Fold each of these.
Amino acid sequence: EAGVAQSPRYKIIEKRQSVAFWCNPISGHATLYWYQQILGQGPKLLIQFQNNGVVDDSQLPKDRFSAERLKGVDSTLKIQPAKLEDSAVYLCASSLRLAGYNEQFFGPGTRLTVL
Amino acid sequence: DQQVKQNSPSLSVQEGRISILNCDYTNSMFDYFLWYKKYPAEGPTFLISISSIKDKNEDGRFTVFLNKSAKHLSLHIVPSQPGDSAVYFCAASATTGNQFYFGTGTSLTVIP
């Protein structure tokens, strides 16, 4: 079974530039999550999709971050414009269904450095 | 508001001994708990879970204990191996809710 795929693995940009990350979840997983993990901290949920609908985006900085999951499969997360404090690892995860008695499977992450 | 806390940022253990990683939570609605293991440059991988109807779950060398009254869970690794060296995150969720809440992680080093 293929795991969660993410690209790119690394990205370096200057502040005020834009960047996009891509995620392909495990086949058949209805729920997809984007997390931000700042160095020394645990992953923080940014947005959660159930199929192609948003379940929770309460912690997404909507003035600069956007995400979509077209057709309920792949997802993209965009930052525009980027700030220095956006430097982090962005993790995508998927699960069969909403949180509950099922675990999330994580991709390798995209390490973003904003200069 | 950190609902899941791992108060030990790091832990060093000799190979063959027991590693005990601790996690505390504040939300009494949490009823499902997981431990993830993370190597550098990789995403977290699921290790073991426990639901609130149990107080212990075992999988090979890994055992998770849950003390609901104390809102505390721990992960025991016996015997510890050098390959266990990684960052361990605990996470919690409520079946009535939608998301998992993660602790800040404990970096385990197993010394050969």
Note: The first strand of chain A starts at residue 5 and ends at 7.
Amino acid sequence: GQSLEQPSEVTAVEGAIVQINCTYQTSGFYGLSWYQQHDGGAPTFLSYNALDGLEETGRFSSFLSRSDSYGYLLLQELQMKDSASYFCAVRDLGNTPLVFGKGTRLSVIA
Amino acid sequence: GAGVSQSPSNKVTEKGKDVELRCDPISGHTALYWYRQRLGQGLEFLIYFQGNSAPDKSGLPSDRFSAERTGESVSTLTIQRTQQEDSAVYLCASSSSTGGMTDTQYFGPGTRLTVL
């Protein structure tokens, strides 16, 4: 089976940087993904890491360390619209569904 | 359509009734997933269809839950004899699922089910 741990809530100030951590336990490993979900909305894909290191997409970056079974999502220059829930997800085998963490609710304050 | 669609968007039913929720995946996507999300909670995997393979039903919480898929298109999730604890948003997702590692799952807007 798989399990993922991420903080339940994070609060940060507009314009700041925030890091959301995710640790996982899987029997296999086919990459770590991050999804964003605004209240009342559907989850949308943000990023994917299959290999160790940092992937950058605009203000968002995602990091993976397979040896530590750990990853994080880094959000820079926070904006109010970034207030949402962020889910890490793993796939432990090919052609299997993603397993999601319980999500981190990010609140961006002025 | 351009994205995953689900219907109805909202469903209110009485305890004990059966409900059917529909999902239209992105055209050409061979993989289809159903998840349940209770208020303020994460996504709970229910069932997964991949092409003509037998579906992965390992996430279905009870035998009251079932799902069908017509070829590589529409899927229907059926909940029989609904209970109040079934109240949640039911999300459908699809992916191209070429078997590669980078398959992104695209989610529909969900069906909000309320069991009174």
Note: The interface with chain A takes residues 31, 33, 35, 41-43, 45, 48, 50, 56, 91, 93, 97, 99-110 of chain B (CB under 8 Å).
